[in-house]
Amino acid sequence: MPGSGPFDDDEGQFLPDSKRTALIDHGFQTLVGGAPTTTGLIDIALTYAPRLVAVDGGANTLLKLGRRPDLVVGDLDSISYAARTAFADRIVHISEQDSTDFAKALRTSPARLTIAVGFVGARVDHLLSALTEIARSRARVILLGDDDCICLMPPRLSLDLVAGTRVSLWPLGPAGGTSTGLKWPIDGLSFSPTTRTGTSNEATGPVTLAMQGDMLLILPAAELPKLVVAVQSPPRGAPARPL
Fold first, then answer.
1. Which of 38, 127, 144, 243 is the most buried (most CB within 10 A)?
2. Cα–Cα distance between 50 and 70 in angstroms, integer?
């Protein structure tokens, strides 16, 4: 789509990713995808991550909610004509089909922390592809839905949780580690998607996790403030054991 504002070169062509990235603020950002979401959920994310980026069809959501994104990124196969017109000066069209729109957005708009809404609670294949991209890119991303917040575990993490808080672990491959503060400790356990997972555990108080391998951490959505702090803070506790 020609004429997309500051990301075009002098001949109306789209800048390569390396040049486009240099124009972007590397702060905290909220990505909005095409799955159903609410103003309230977006507002919560923006509290921590004020830069607002629409991921393809997420532009339709923002237009409907009366929000103006800083950027719209995607192959534009899901964006409405109305959203294209309203946000024409901030669209980055990436037509290649070798990566998802979520991956395009993370690549185009890198950030120290990304909170992504509109990716949980609709199409399962879109959620799974987002999780795969987080594991592949190692980007610091928290997926936020109405009920859950999800991130890829860093090697070590400390969370100031209260007793009874749900703590679920879901391996994306072989994984293992150590824990303190869990009702059912994970020390000495070997996890994988086809053998053992760690869903529906509980905190007995503050939790420390040390992990090797790719492991998703799934917490209640209400724990987002603590997770935002935890993924940025030096962890407490012992190092992870080798697999």
1. 144
2. 10
Q: What are phi and psi of 185, to 5 degrees?
A: -60, 155
Angle at CA of residue 76, ends 121 and 28, nearest 5°: 60
Judge whether 223 and 207 are in contact, CB under 8 Å: no
Interval 118-177: pLDDT, tens: 998 778 888 899 999 999 999 999 999 999 999 999 999 999 999 999 999 999 999 999
Tokens matching residue 62 = 């923002």
Return the amino acid letter for 75.
D
This prediction has a pTM of 0.84
* Half-sphere exposure of residue 115: CA atoms within 13 angstroms, side-chain side: 26
For 50, list phi and psi in degrees, rounded to 5: -75, -15
Q: Give me the pLDDT at residue 92, please.
A: 94
What are 73's strand-pairing partners?
Answer: 55, 92
- Tens digit of pLDDT for each residue in 86-125? 999 999 999 888 889 999 999 999 999 999 999 987 788 8
Task: Extract the tokens encoding 93.
Answer: 């069209």
Tell me the two tokens of residue 111.
Answer: 């950030």
